[in-house]
Amino acid sequence: MAQFKANNIQATTLGLAAVALTNNPAYPTYPDDMTTSQVSSGLSAPFAAVALLGNHGAVALLLTLFMAVTSSSSAELIAVSSVFTFDVYKMYMNPLASPEQLIRVSHIMICVFGVVMAMFACIWNAIGIDLGWLFLTMGLLIGGAVFPAALTVCWKKQSSNGALFGALGGLSAGLTAWLVTAKALYGELTITTTGSSYPTLAGNLASVLTGLGLTLVISSIKPDNFDWEVTRGINAPATEGMPSSEPSSGEQSPPSGVQDWEKHAACTENKNPPKLTHNTSCQIKNEEQREALEDEAILEDPTLLRGAFRFAVVSSIVLTLLMDFIIPMPMFFSHYIFSKGFFIGWIVISFIWVFCSLAICALLPIWEAKTFFVDFWKELVDGRRQRKMVVAGRS
């Protein structure tokens, strides 16, 4: 959520800069304003970057867009490839597929989906569909599956029929409301009318709310009772048919509690000190084992897990109410026009949010792993110092 909001703030910042710089001679369209087509094509940000930094700004924005598009495309490619490989090919076509076959099918699916994405991109561009139209209609196409997908991982009584018909019913309702509203308001169905605000708003609301209603009703009529132990055991190591992992005589078994891990690691290191060339790898291995024991302790006594779950639920509800209802709805229905003071406050809050997002997404992970980095650096420095001593002794 924080990263998504930060991307929106970046787009808002460059968009506002484009509006402010329209009358500047350095602006690419000066003295004319941007056309509707240019705005919908997403050229506001590049124009603002060029006006501020010249060609360097264009290059910087191109790199930013390349990284964003590459990241999104990579996630989509991997997700679709995994669905076709494991949920279609392995489930229905070759249940006994070997790892080599699964990898090969995964690679093929990545190539196929990449070609399909490129074909659709060319088709959209050829018929005149721009980014603005796609962004507005994307919600009604995927909105029906929002609540069915969310309840799948949050509600054990969600049934397969509820998830399936909720998603499909939401899609059908969204498409119907979208096209009917565009036809009723504007009298024709074109790219311009279907990309207007009110038809897409009607389609989005119909899609999301219909998906939610169908999922709840169908699942309540014939509820399921999913056992969450199935998902908890997905990554559990297979023990059936495996040799016993009990320690032999003279070996010290690992502790069962996280609080005893440090003592165990220290005793193990003193008893069997690692070689000089393996200090760093041993440190990394000990860190991984310690994290595994922490995860196991949380599963056995999930007090911390329940606390994290409550925090996630409360924060999600609060942010959803603020961003979707409490802030935008009163301004929309009152047709409020920003005053200068209100606009300055809005921008200040936006920048505070950006810095908070930076702290959460970039700085907090480094702080949480500070112990590992300190230990890793100590091992690295000690290893170099000892190697120098060995080389000096030999010479």
Describe this entry's structure for a reader.
This protein is mainly α and 395 residues long. The protein is 76% helix and 0% strand. The termini are far apart. Residues 1-6 and 239-278 have low confidence and may be disordered.
| Alpha carbon gap, first and last residue | 59 Å
| Major sheet size, sense and barrel closure | none
Number of helices: 17
Low-confidence stretches: 1-6, 239-278
Kindly name the structural category. mainly alpha
Note the quaternary state here: single chain
Chain-averaged pLDDT: 79
**Whole-angstrom Rg:** 28 Å
State the total count of DSSP E strands. 0
Describe the global form. globular
Residues in helices, as a percent range: over 70%
SSE order, as H and E? Answer: HHHHHHHHHHHHHHHHH
Indicate the proportion of strand residues: under 5%
